[in-house]
Amino acid sequence: MQKIKFRKQYRARNSATYKTITLHIPILYEDNYLIAVNKPHNILIHKSHYARNLKGPTLLDELLAQEGVAFYPIHRLDYKTSGVLLLCKKKEYVVKFQELFDKNKIQKTYRAIVRGFAPEKLTIDTPVKNADTLKYKDALTELKLLGQVSLDIPVHPYPGSRYSFVELSPKTGRMHQLRIHMNKISHPIVGDYKYGDRFHNRMFENELSCENMFLHAFSVNFTHPFTGTSHNINAEFSKNWLQVFQKFNFNKNSR
Length: 255
Hints:
alpha+beta
């Protein structure tokens, strides 16, 4: 497996032709064909019909300002989801990487904090409705428990609250798959206002000052379609995550 070199600094071009940089997008890996970045919470990758009401610069805007060149996303992450995102340096490279996704040759793992005590291991295979066709498609997610905590903080309708730190491995790529699957097994992701529990979301906001959704694309593992080298790229957690790890005594390196 090729040893990955991480950048210590990012490149920012000073030019009036680029928009002002409002975010620092960490570059996790780079070669002649692609870059991997650590996408922050609460930013669109690009403009989308599904998120047409969300304003502000996109991740592609920020990368153009920061790096001075355009990039082409290979896959997607939701607006509120953070973590590893792969982008190509040329549009014609994208199809080769997307073929890996189509053939299930790119393995992605996520970390999430969810309501309640999740099981040690679980395979979730509830079909997920396609937003365009309104037809249900097969979907498969593997869950592994990494940590649990009980708190004396009341959350309606209970006198206390319980949370789990889990690893989620999607084997299919349906829109909102992980968020829907965790809702279906009654362990919704904290901070998810579409599929989650509003009472637990509010507790995190009021007691912990955490407003982000706790879903993080932790790692991407693949064999490079152009070079043949193996890659395992990991993304560090944001400040809110580290705060919760400390509060809940979760080990961020649990596997």
